[in-house]
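User: structure tokens for this one?
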Amino acid sequence: MHLREELQITKPLEPGHEVALALLLTREYVARLFDQALYEREDISDQQFNLLRILKGGPRDGYLVKDLRSRMIYRFADVPRLVNRLEARGLVKRCENPADRRGSRVQITPKGLALEARMHTQHHALCQRVDECLEPGERDLLLSLLERLRNDFRTQVEALEK
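Assistant:
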């Protein structure tokens, strides 16, 4: 279904507006698919799952809270609050950082590893489903175009933050 038809827009859209709406609506569908098929079943948010995956693939002694933010998909996430919620469920633990006592390190627990492992297969299947929508050449083109947009937006965001 065309974007204008789906959103019931009768007037022509300017090119930038149409692209922005298409990106936001597509992101909404992908997020809803993952929420309903994966995250809601385990009572976990997408950001919490992202954090578990980062910790699972990280160093054994974990990451500093401040270093987790730069690895998150959602760069403006409240990482200390995410860690607190996961810690309350026993999925991660904070450990003293011998190099700097002002910051603690966060490690995934065996319970967190078990949850991530349970979710891994379904997560992989959903990612495959997203990928199957496109031919290989289309996929590469889409990734290239999205990277170009991200690079431009990153520059704009950094300029606004100064």
